[in-house]
Each structure stands twice: as C-alpha cells, then as structure tokens.
Amino acid sequence: MMRARGWLAALPMLTLLAAGFAAPIAIVAVTSLMPPRTFSLTGALALSNYLAAFTEGYWRPLMWSALGALATTAICLVLAWPTANALMRLGGRVATLVAILIALPIFISESVRLFGLSLFLMPGGGILAGTLNELFGIRIGSILNTRLAALIGLVYIHFPFVLFPLMLGLGLVPRDQVEAARDLGASGWQLFREIEAPLAAPGAAIGAMLCFVLALGANAEAAILGGRAVTVATQAIEQRFSYAQDWPQGAALTMLLVLITALVVIPLLRRVDLDRLIGR
Amino acid sequence: MTAGQDGRAFLVLDGLTRRFSGRPAVDGVSLSIPEGEFFTIVGPSGSGKSTLIRMLAGLERPDAGRILLRGADITAMPANRRPTCMVFQSLALFSHRSVGENIAFALKMRGVDAATRRARALELMELVRLPADYLDRPVTQCSGGERQRVALARALASDPEILFFDEPLSAIDYRLRKILEMEMKDLHARTGKTFLYITHSLEEAMVMSDRIAIMRAGRIVQIGPPREIYARPNSRFVAEFMGEVNVFAVRGGRIEGLDRPAAAQSGFLILRPEALRPLGPADHADVSFPARIETGYLLGSRSQLHLSALGRRLVAELPGAAAAELRPGQEGRWGFDLADAVVTPE
Questions:
Q1: pLDDT for B6 beyond 70
Q2: Which end of chain B has the least Cβ crowding within 10 Å, N or C?
C-alpha cells in the first residue's frame, strides 16, 4: 500500500524525467549509431561516428573541454576552501553580506558578465590596461583571446558553485573535533588533511561535481574570452549539428561528453553520503 | 597532597581573565597546582569553569593574566604546541576514524610510524581496560563507557604534562559514572600525571580529588581538600553546593530563630543534616528544641527526615538503624552541638 503510494507520488516527476531527460538521450544515442550525414533513425547501426571522433581530430575539443573542466574544478576548490573557512569563521552579518555579493552575479546572464570581463581585459583601451597606462604609465599586453583568458572566465563563472556546497560541507565538521585535533598537536596542514578534508568531503565532492559538469559543457567562456584560441566540445558539437548538417557525428560527440560526465559523476556520487549533507 | 605554595609550583595561574563582550567570564583567577595532584574545579553552569580550562588548553585566549607551566610562560603558546591534553565534554572523538586511529592520533601528528602507533594504542587500551579487538572498530560503534575510555586513552597517548577534563562524565548515567569516577582516580594513581578536572558536581569532585576549588561568577571562592570544603565551607554558596543544609541567618551577633549568640556579627550558621539528632530524656545538646517529623525518605544506608521545628522546616539525616523507629507525625526533642555547625560570613 505504502509502496504503491510512493510510486503514485513519484509519477509526475517520473513522467517529466522520462519525457525531458531519458527520451532525448535515447534519441541522441540512436542517432549517434546512424550512418554519417543521415537524418533517419532507421538506418543500419554502426560505430563509424565514434571511430571518426578519434581519427578526424574531434578528440581535441573533447580533450580541451575535459582539461578545462578539470583545471577549473581544481582551481575553484583551492580558492574556495580558504574562502569558505574564512566565511564560516567570520559568521554573522559580514559573512552573509560577502556570501550575497558572491552569489548575486549568478542572477545576471553569463554572457553579460563575460563581456564585462572581456572589456576589463581588452588591450590598449581596456579597463585594466587603460587604467595602468593612465595612472602609472605602465603598458601591458592582454591575455584576451588566449586559453588562459578562457580558463579565468571558467573559474570566475563557476566559483560560487564550488563555494556554497563546500561551506555546507565545512558546516558538517564538528567544532569540537577540530579543537581536539589542535589539542592533540595537529598543525594547520595536518588539521586540514586529517579532520577537515575527510569530514567536509561530501560538500567538496558536490561542489566539484557541479563545477566539473557545468564547465565541461560551457562554451561562452571559450567563445567570448578565448577567441579562436580554443575550440571546446560543445562548440564542435554545435558545428556538427548546424553548419555541417552531420547529426550522427554530433550525436556521437554528445554521447562521448555524456560518457565523460558519467565517468566522473557516478563514482563520486557512490562515495558521497548525500543524506548526511542535507541533515538526515 | 598539600597546597602548591611549597616551591614545587607546577602549574600556576596568575590573574587569568577572559571577558565576553565586556562581561568577565573568568575574573582574575590565580591558582597554584603541584605536580601529580588531582585538582578539581567545581561550579554551577555559567561560573566560567569551562572558559578557564579552555584557556589552559590554549583554545581560548585570556584577556589578562599568565599561565606558567614549570615556570615557563605558556600563555601565548598555541594549543597544538602545549604539552597538555584535554578530554572534552562531548569527548570529540574523530567520528571518521577507528578506535586505534583515535587513540594514536597525537602520535601520528608527531610522525611516529604506523607499527609503533599500533603497539602504543594497544598498550593504552590495556591501561584503560578496552579489549584489544576494539582496535579497528569505528568509534561510532562504541558504547558510552567505551567511548569514554577511548577519549582517555587518546589524551594519554601524547604523554602530556597535564590532563584537563571538561565535565567528561556529565552525560553518563549514574551507575556507569560511579564506576568511571573510580577508574579515573585509579588511572590518576597509576599514571602519576597531574589531573585538572572540571565538574558541576561537588559529589563527583569529593570522590576523586586531592583538592577542590569552588568557582562562582568567574572567581574562585574556596580552595581546599574535600574534607575541608565539606566541613568548613566559607560561604552559604559553598555549603549549599553539596546538597541540602540548614541555614540560619546571623544578625547583630545572634543566630536568628535560636536566640543564641553567634561567633560572628553577621552571616549564616550552616548546619549539615547529619548534625541534627533526636534526643532522649537523658540526652544533652548545645541547642535543643521540640520538633515534629513531617516526612521521611530512605536513602539506602541513611534516612532523610524533614522536621517541622522553630517555626520552619529542617532537614536531618540519620543512619538507617537510628531512623528505624522514627515515623512521620512523631513529636520529640531534637538538637545539635554548636561545634558541628559552621558560621560563614556570607
């Protein structure tokens, strides 16, 4: 009886997931197995598109996306850990204010923020270069339209997605255990390695996962800040679908991206105790 | 053990003060504790005893005053460098580590190798009477008493100069607490370490301590051996800490309600319940009066009686045998000797 009720309650969500998530993925999966440049779902199944993904240079955008996502996640974790710790220690009104200031930009379109950053980095008359030149007579070049600029954009956009889950995770570290570790002779680094890191791991893992998945699928950073310096996976996929009119190839690249995501997310989710994070 | 003024001063607190938003939680506490003593600070919640011990462990910074260990000033030394160790009220066991890993934590922090750590953990487990097969068990699977022992062993592992205890037994049921009190005293004797213990229970302090300090509103109000604290409380506050007492006000040099001269101009006459006794026709006492037994409770080997006398209520305690024939409603003569009462100035 209770079981039946549970299924009934889950029905709307299940319908939504089936129609909005499972079905499109299934269609993309089948498309990826069709012969190149066809638009039908009934051709003979073949792995040629996957083969082409590795022989015809499509692995490069996939690699750049994966590397970019990894680097972004690592940098965000390194930056967010001390920030989260400081905010937790600060507490009170100031911490809330800082947290709001960090969260607020999420409500502004990503492209607008990235164009802002690009104005800042622009050579010659850009905000950074122009100010340095005007005030101090220092002339600098610009990192705009490089992979570094794209990476800075990725970090800038995805930082809050790591910070807030991490703060949640650090909130799980009992104060008395931190004090006990100190009392037992743990240095700052030992405290991090022995107590904070393992106990805050669920929050860190959720934040890292969010960041990795979002950064893997990001393309605005590369397009607006990276210029033509780098082609990311989503851009390559878009080109296959629109300009090249090669849907099966685009679908195969999409499936590879899904595969990379699954390889990272599934093992992590298995290890993270989500119930602990939401306080059950 | 005697007071620490004999030149063997081991741990010295000198005018230690800590304020929270202007209000002093610990207010100029000065103490001297000799090596090897079991010293207990007793106070009600909010008396500042926890803040005091946290300053000694280095988890809280004093606003004023100094802490000296073997003559060296450790006031500014961070917690992880102090040769002291604390057993927390919550025990603060590392929930993601096994019993053995918890116990050997301090050794790991010092870079001791795994095999040595394991051997030392097993030694300490034997010392606190934990079975050896608990070594790899998660601490989350241990019972309250076992967790207590893990916390003790963990604190002893770093071979600290002093062990601090912040009410570690307060959340434990009565029977187990009594056993652990004895074990704690026994452990103190066997290790020869200096123990500084904090509790809100004077009864717990009496069982274990060499000396007791009573703390109230951030200050130490009395220090002495348990016997002295019990027999010669210097204030009504200290006297009432131990349990029920009979208090008579002293005003203008006379004890109110008894109409007798007192040893002091003003203050209180404190009479422990066991100082009151029923008087037979031939018995004599310094102070005697008619009384009526209202209620009686059996406290195991003793009986507690509530008397109605002198226009008020008095509490008396008698050995079980002496109270056998006394019943509620009985009237008779009761009394006490002034030598058994204490006059306190406040």
A1: no
A2: C
A195/B94 CB distance under 8 A? yes
- Alpha-carbon distance of A146 to A160, in angstroms, equals 23
Low-confidence winner among A15-19, A39-43, B99-103 (lowest mean pLDDT): A39-43
> Which helix or strand (DSSP H or E) is residue B212 part of?
strand B211-216
Contacts of B82 in chain A (CB under 8 A): 183
Cβ neighbours of B94 in A, within 8 Å: 177, 180-181, 194-195
**Phi, psi at B91, each rounded to 5°:** 70, -35
Full DSSP string of B2-44: --STTS-EEEEEEEEEEEETTEEEEEEEEEEEETT-EEEEE--
- Write the ipTM: 0.85
Interface test with B, best of A175, A184, A190, A276 (most B CBs within 10 A): A184
- Express each pLDDT in A227-273 by its tens digit: 878 889 999 999 999 998 999 999 999 999 999 999 999 988 888 77
- Nearest neighbour of B109 by CB, restricted to A176, A177, A185: A185
pLDDT tier, B3 (very low <50, low <70, confident <90, very high otherwise)? very low
Residue ranges of chain A whose CB lies within 8 Å of a chain B CB: 174, 176-177, 179-187, 190, 194-195, 198-199
| Domains of chain A listed by start with CATH number | 68-101+108-275 (1.10.3720.10)
The pLDDT assigned to A40 comes to 82
Tell me the chain A residues in contact with residue B78 when contact means C-beta distances shorter than 8 Å: 182
Nearest Cα residue in chain A from B85 = A183
pLDDT at residue A279 in the model: 59
Give me the residue label for tokens 């009720």: A5
Confidence band for B170, pLDDT divided at 50, 70 and 90: confident
Model pTM score? 0.82
CB-nearest to B79 from A183, A190, A195 is: A183
- Work out the percent of chain A whose per-residue pLDDT is above 90: 52
Using CA atoms, how far apart are residues B168 and B158, in angstroms rounded to an integer? 19
Contacts of B110 in chain A (CB under 8 A): 185
Rounded (to 5) percent helix, strand, coil in chain A = 75, 0, 25
